[in-house]
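To whoever is on call:

I kicked off a structure prediction for a single chain this morning and the downstream step that reads the tokens threw a length-mismatch warning. I double-checked the sequence; it's 375 residues and nothing unusual in it as far as I can see. Pasting both halves so you can look.
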Amino acid sequence: MTRLDAIVRRFPLIPRPRPRCGPIEERIAVARKLADDATMSAPHEGLASAAQAQNLCALIASDCGLPDLARALCRQHHNAYLDARPLTARQARLALEPLVNLARIHIRAGDGLAAHALLTDLWRALNDFAPLTIDATTLSLSGLTANSADLNDVRTWLWTVLIADGPRALINAGQWQQAREHVERHRGIGHTLLDGRQIAVVAALLTHGPAAALPLIDQTQPAHSWEKAVHACLTVLCHSVASGDTTAHAATMRRRYLHLPVEPGTQLFHARLGLTVIDLLGGPQEERAIPVLTHLLEEIRHAADGYAAKEVLTGFGSDVLPSHTRQELTRIVHSSGLHQAGVPSHLKAELLHAANTGEQALRRILKLTPGGRAG
């Protein structure tokens, strides 16, 4: 992998909140509490808790190297909604989330093309009611909602998923130009630095060079501090490819990263952004990159987030970080379960209990709200 490949694989950089990847025992306890809350809550609140519990259980299974279990939990979760159709827009969105998660499991396994095909088929199934085949099982989304207004709400939500996860699947397969064509086809390139414009910039850089990418950056209208930080990274990236001289922009890039607040749930975004800044400054051994590395490591220690710690360990060679720092990050990763190919039997039993409790609560709630009247 070239230096350029290592940098662009982190794009698009978007601070979408995600649950903290703490110790696996804590994560399973959270899933169990969500499932238990769902059994005791009113339907409106219980619906969200039941869905969150099952999604979290599938995510934990995937994190711990159990993709088959993760997929089974996703299918179990989705199936719970099938007999309750027609659904409200909210219920229908929750029903499709496990299918989107199946695509994300493909991405984690390095099969971006399978993920993209699943997302595309899901979009077609929702819009044209075409049959949807997943793991040799054929599904139909016909009659998913009671009325066209709810269906349009679900389509709007799935469009945002398609704009974010569809290109990410193609990028996973190394197909940047196809990723750009995907966002163009779905009208996903705006003036701010969301997925579409970042993908357009990187695709232009890789395909046609900096002269094609820089105008796309200059035409961007970054609205938030994180966008300005990413904007600076893309600017330095293009100039480094064009001439290698990034002096005029590197200081701005570093300052914007160091002053960027870490919002809850965005630790992985900050880790990837920090690694990108360090790479664009010449690597962690460069004097001007040391404050960035120090800041990055402090944030990871404070958050103790397994995803972020693993990203840094993967991003640097074994000889870059001091041994005590590498050991500390490794401990965070190990405690979260990310290093495992499975989980201890007692934890797996707790995980399955949480998933099954969430499913039972979900089915009960859906029976209390037949025909999509509530929730």
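Update from on-call: the warning came from a stale cache, not from the record. Cleared it. Sanity check on the structure: Residues 306 and 332 are 6 Å apart (CA to CA).
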